[in-house]
Amino acid sequence: MPNKILNISVDCVVFGYDTNTKSLNLLLIKRYLESEATKEILVDDYVLTGYHVYEDETLDDSATRVLKELTGLTDQYKKQFKAFGNPDRLMNKKDLIWSEKEAFNLRTVTVAYYFLLKTEDVDVEANKYKAKWFPIRALPELGFDHQQIIEEAHEDLKIKCLAEPIIFELLPNKFTINDVQDLYESILGIEIDNRNFRRKLINKKYIIPLDEKQVGVSKKPAQLYMFSKDIYQKMYHKNYLISI
Amino acid sequence: MPNKILNISVDCVVFGYDTNTKSLNLLLIKRYLESEATKEILVDDYVLTGYHVYEDETLDDSATRVLKELTGLTDQYKKQFKAFGNPDRLMNKKDLIWSEKEAFNLRTVTVAYYFLLKTEDVDVEANKYKAKWFPIRALPELGFDHQQIIEEAHEDLKIKCLAEPIIFELLPNKFTINDVQDLYESILGIEIDNRNFRRKLINKKYIIPLDEKQVGVSKKPAQLYMFSKDIYQKMYHKNYLISI
DNA sequence: ACTAACAAACGTAATTATGACGTTTATTAA
DNA sequence: TTAATAAACGTCATAATTACGTTTGTTAGT
Q1: Of the partner residues B55, B107, B184, the one whose CB lies closest to the CB of residue A107
Q2: pLDDT in tens, B32-83
Q3: Span B5-167: which CATH code?
């Protein structure tokens, strides 16, 4: 039997990072529809994955379900960052392809989440929605109000990655110091002095050097490190600092 | 004509600060109902102010409207911090007093905001909902899931007040250094060294000493200061710092 | 008029963190 | 062998933080 759906949806902003191209990416799905009568192209753009919330699930569960359908992954870092619900949200003609929404005369409110995952963990080809990674600096045309949702997710991520070590959710388990720096630079859109960054990061107790180096590079191979969540949590539990 | 309402509501966590008692307070309204037949007390607790979102207003406008009805105030600092919508949210018998909700078979999702305002700006007596200030360390019994909403608002405020100078939204326009320290201590639940805090705050360009001192105190009267939002915005626009 | 009490306000010294650079090292490709 | 290049290490001046001690200005009580 089908689940009863609500006029409330979740939308998922899925961040991934490609250490090769040093690019912060978003996973988007294709939306395409042309009129059967006139052959007019009604929609041809990309959107975030999202779906209506079932009556018997929490908002968090709903977001987790949507991500699982998209990527097959569970247990990824997830943050609910904002609800969107302007009254004109359903006025857009393009929305008509979502037949479920038509069942309501009410407008839809969407609760937006972002996820952080390792690009390597996702098999994009296996996906039935034609999901595709896009560099955040070169996004395609976006449907609904998803441009705005993405921008606000990015802003929230900027602030959050400076306050908590969530950056490691986007990196492979073994990474180099420069991987971390490149990722910070991708997220924040700034340049960081490598020598100072390196010193600062290596001094963190929760950055563990491994007995391993990069292989298959044509330059001096870099030292590999891992992040210890355990040590972080033991040392930095509620370490508020007044900085303003 | 009545506004059409949605099965989406806003709830407002209203923070105020009393410089005399040095207490961070919340503005709550009384909820009381007894059965006409059995005289059984159905509900007798306090709740956040909230209301359903009208079909033609944004979520932000809805929160602003609720705050205005409660306090008469507009243009207060406002932050949407989380949406709450567990499937059991309408199972609570106590909810039955909200007749509007019964019009829906759907559960309600509430978008929670917090507001920061100066206690002195609110005339509690003038309020038709019997609104009352409660110290956040001594809250009464709370209805619905409002205990949880308040806790999450408080956590968000802790982080936010360390990242941005929103603390001054809670203080009178003219304040002492110790007022600011006391407020930080109330919000964060920590103790701060007065001498170091004082030096740090006075060194901020946006903390302006006035040609005025406290009056009516029975000790050495303290210097009064004001916060210059202008100077802050000119100096601190997008000053990201990697700290982790 | 003097003094105790007390919070406001100022001061200091050691340590740590930061910003802005210069130098050396290990590797591959030519 | 060597040039090229990214990784890794080093230095120094300045700023910020931590952890305290001391002085000042006011009122209230004698």
Answers
A1: B55
A2: 877 778 888 888 899 999 998 888 899 999 999 999 999 999 999 999 999 9
A3: 3.90.79.10
pTM listed for this prediction: 0.90
| Domain parsing of chain B, residue ranges | 5-167, 173-235
Average pLDDT over all residues of chain A: 86
Q: What is the 3-state secondary structure (H, E, C) of chain A?
A: CCCCEEEEEEEEEEEEEECCCCEEEEEEEEEEEECCCCCCEEEEEEECEEEEEECCCCHHHHHHHHHHHHHCCCCCEEEEEEEECCHHHHCCHHHHHCHHHHCCCCCCEEEEEEEEEEHHHCCHHHCCCCCEEEECCCCCCECCCHHHHHHHHHHHHHHHHHHCCHHHHCCCCCECHHHHHHHHHHHHCCCCCHHHHHHHHHCCCCEEEEEEECCCCCCCCCEEEEECHHHHHHHCCCCCCCCC
Instruction: State how beta strands A5-18 and A77-84 pair.
Output: unpaired
Q: Is there a contact between A111 and B106 if contact means CB atoms under 8 Å apart?
A: no
A153-184 tens-digit pLDDT: 999 999 899 889 999 999 999 999 999 999 99
Q: Do A163 and B158 touch (CB under 8 A)?
A: no
Better-scored residue on pLDDT, B216 or A35? B216
CA of A176 and C1' of D10: distance in angstroms? 21
Give the rounded percent of residues in chain A with a pLDDT score beyond 70: 86
Q: Which residue of A has its CA nearest to B110?
A: A83
The residue with tokens 């191979």 is A221
d(CA A102, CA A99) in angstroms, rounded, equals 5
From the CB of residue B79, how many other CB atoms can be counted at a distance below 10 Å? 17
| pLDDT (tens digit per residue) in B158-214 | 989 988 999 999 999 999 999 999 999 999 999 999 999 999 999 999 999 999 999
Does the domain formed by A5-164 have CATH 1.20.1510.10? no
Query: Residue A222 CA to nucleotide C28 C1', Å?
Result: 14
Nearest chain B residue to A80, by CA: B82
Give the tens place of pLDDT for each residue, A189-206: 999 999 999 999 999 999
Task: Provide residues of A within 8 Å CB-CB of chain B.
Answer: 6-8, 53, 55-59, 80, 82-87, 106-107, 109, 111, 158-159, 162-165, 184, 188, 190, 192, 197, 200, 204, 240-244
CATH number of the domain located at residue range(s) A173-235 in this protein:
1.10.10.10
